Amino acid sequence: MMLSVIRFKQIIIHTIFFGLCLLVNMSFAQDAAKSNISADSKIRNIDGVAAVVNTGFVTRKEIDDRIAVLKKQGVKLPEDGSLRKLVLDRLILEKIQLQNAEQEGIRVSNKELDKIIADLAAKNKSTYAEFKAKVNASGTTFERYKELLRDDIMVSRYREREIEAKIKISDAEIDNFIADRTRAMTAVGASRSVPAGKGDIEEIDVAQIFIPVDANAGAGAQADAKKKADILLKDARGDVDFLQLGAMAAKDNPKIKFQELGYRTADRLPQLFYEAIRNTGGGQVANTVVKSPAGYHVLKVLDRRAVGASPPPQQAATPVSGSNMPQNIPITQTLSRHILLRSRPGLTDQDAERRLQGYRDQIRAKTADFAELAKKYSEDGSAQNGGELGWMSPGDLVPEFEQAMNRLQIGEVSNPVKTEFGWHLIQVLDRREGQLTVEKQRQFARAAIRERKFEQAYQEWLRELRDNATVKILNVDDAASSPPR
Fold first, then answer.
1. What is the DSSP letter of 35?
2. Domain 329-436's class?
């Protein structure tokens, strides 16, 4: 199994899990207008239209059905009357993207769609016919399922193409990122610069990992964000690269941001930040997570120095050329193995966790061997090798897996760990010192910079789509069963 998380592959993963979601929660429809009849004519002939979108429309029933799906999935919904408008806005954006994809000539052939469904069925350990029967039994027709899946694939491909075109990453950005990372990794428990003397004005170089959460979000969302921040704070206190830790977290959740703020005097730092790191030395992490109206911040002081001072020459960030080419970086590599139970309909989180806990108890009691259990029960390509994953470097694995693995001693078996792939039981077999090659550094830097830029590019792209579309809101407040006002 390839556990590396690269956004280029997430489009395919998203499509697979969208298919699973459709299988479990198939209850909403996205009816698109295919004829050349004018929008006004459609409105006269179709009851329950909530909004006209270019030459298509969104119905009130679509809003009802999407809300029903969100409730079924246990999503915490706003109670201030804004829900229907929020859902309508989302459906409008989806409609615009699908219309644009069709206009751009993006297509998914029947043959290609059948192959995708066959792969999806195989991942669920079903034949194509069995999968089709499950879809029909879920309350929708198989043809409707295929139509929705086709639409989602088209939109995903259109979105990937459009956003990728907006993200530009220069060699200079990559060089600077590597220089910053290298500089940060050399700062272990001590400043890189001579500290400011008594009475001197000081500059502080601070890095942050930011977990956003809306100030009006419910208690559950606030608690989840705080929990994630606390875990990152704990991990940041270990022997890890802080910015790489941030990049790993951003792979898991693109909304999470990480950045080095650069050298700033106290008056140029947010007051909340300065209070949190006032007495924190260079190379050290703030004692607590910082809460702001925008979310939670994990902070690390990379350096403290007098104004106008420079880092020691060997640590200064310089352009990468000639004799200044970056060197291979020493890293710790881990040899581990795992047992994976994939997420799928019919297997609840509680059942997966219970099964893996049972395997763990057997291994600890020495009544079963990890490798034999992996061969017998693991739902992963590594099963035939006893679950062994080979030597992994930092950043090679999804964040939840890597963080759990890094906390284990050699020979120790983890508690069940959940990732986007399912539930894992992990055992560390060995560790060794290796090197992160220059080429690997550049690959990581490009991926990390892309993560930083993706969310902004995505939001700007959505705004452009909405601004360039012709949208007329007709009736968002009434449910489909209510008579129009």
1. S
2. alpha beta
